[in-house]
Structures are given as C-alpha cells and as structure tokens.
Specification:
With 323 residues, the chain is an alpha+beta fold. The protein has eight helices and 20 strands. Strand 1 and strand 2 (8-11) form a beta hairpin.
Length: 323
Amino acid sequence: MLQLTQRGTTFRGNAAEVACLRATFERRHALPLPQFLPSPLLSYIQKALTHAVFEANGEPGFFAEVRLSPAKPIWDHLLFMMNDPALFHWVEQITGCDAIGRFSGRVYRRSPGSNHYDDWHDDDIETRMIGISVNLGRETFSGGALKLRDALSKKQIYEMANTGFGDAVLFSISEHLQHIVMPLEGTAERTALAGWFRREPDYATELNAAIVDQRPVPRGQADGQTGGLPAQLRLSDEALYHAAGDDLLVHVNGVSGVNGRARFYKLNGVGREILERLVATGTPATVIAHMMDEYDVPADELTQAVRRLVAELQSQWVLEAVN
C-alpha cells in the first residue's frame, strides 16, 4: 500500500508486490491507490479546505469548476506533501516513468449538472508523464468516472469512479492515450486534488530557494521555560516533513516566513534523527536515554541539544506538548 503521511511517503509491500503493481499499470495504464491519504491527514486537509477560498476558473473548458486559490497556505502544504522524493521514487517504480522532477496541479470542486470539461484529451504537455486524482471530498458522489482509451483506435482501456475517501488513481500521460472525466450525477459535489508528475522543473531547487532558515526562530520560550522538557510530545497536525537525502525538510501550514512566503526549513542529519525519534516515541527522556546508549556523547551535551531543538520545534508549531 502506497500512502502519504505527515512523516512522508510509506510503502508497505515487497519487491514481488511492486512488480505486480507495475504489471497492472502497464496493462491498464492506470492504477487505483486505496487509502492514499490516511484518515488523520485527510481529515486535516478537509477541515482546512472547508475554510479556504475557491475561485471561479476562466480557463476554456473548465468554467464549471472552482479552484482553491494558490495564495492560500494549504496549497503550499499540499504541494509540499506531493513533492516528496520518496513518493517520486515509488511512482517511478510502479509506473516505469522517467525520473520525476516535480508535481504540479490544482484542487478543484465541481457540482452535479455542470457542463464541465468532458472532451477526450491527452494532457501530453509541459513534460507531464503520470496523472493523479485524489478524492478529498466528505460525501460520496455519483458519476465522475475517469475513462482511458487508445488515441488511435478509440478503444476504451480503463474506467474508474474514484469515490473512496482519500483514495487516488494514477494514470499514464501519453500522446497515444486519451482520457475523459464524466459528468457528476445525483446531488453530491466533488472535491479533488488533480495533477501531474513531471520531468521538470525541479521542485527541490525551487524549495531550497524558499527555505527560510536551517533553524527556525523561536517565537517564545517552550512551555514557559527553556530549561525544561515536556514529558510527552506529538507532531502537530499542521506539520509535514519528509527526507531529502540525509536532511529532513519541514513545512508548517499557515506559518509564514520572510516576505510572507510559506515557511520551509531544513534539519541536518542530527536534527533529523532527534525529531524522528521524538515523533516515534513521544518521550524526550526516552530519546535521550536511547541515544546515550548508542553514541559516545556526554549526557549534558545531548540533553542540551535535544532541549534546544524541542524548544525551536515547539516555537514553530512542529511539535506540541501532550497534556
């Protein structure tokens, strides 16, 4: 199972299962991804979208849909989530596509009975290789099936209505394939994240330019004092992180950096290990004890390093104390 989580992309399966998924994708040119977004992350996104601004779209063929404003913080959050190098790796393994440079797309909302874009098309522009649609809705819609066909023979290859909450579907982008999304039926509207995995441009380069600092600037003292450590910690609902080489990239929804840009920052290998251990155990004292057993580091030095990082991560809403 391929899933996005607050802590990055996970894949539960072995090499044989990857080969099976690859064979299915090569045969159908599409692949459903059940529970692509697990319930906690999906619920957070749904709540954020409830209060977000959706704007009428004036692009020909898409007049009937409204789109999430790219100026809203949740959009940066979703882009960060989808541009995880680990997700790129698994999409490449499953689909056989070339190396992915970035994900781009949109969040849209459509209502039943609207005359939306319903022509067969291929999306084969702007270095797009693989398409994806992720269901972000709260209610089950009717209709709206994705269909794929051979561009030359017009023979239909695949059809799926992606109605499961948090489910996704991957599909090929090629001049030899065309797809269409059928009109909605019934009364429920549809909210989805739709986009493409592309060869270029490189998202990592863009993100590095946007990183505010390698150490977040505290907004105050953690839990009223810098000298103490909370007994229990958890990853804030607003935080996402994923690995980039040895480093860890972090984004917090709604927290702005320089000039109002979204705040992204980087933890080096040591900071990454401490944060991952803190999230896994929830207990700073346990993290310190285990790291002292594994590394030849003076207790005071390690405790101070953990204390400083915890204070910084709490100040930026990455970690929060459990009462």
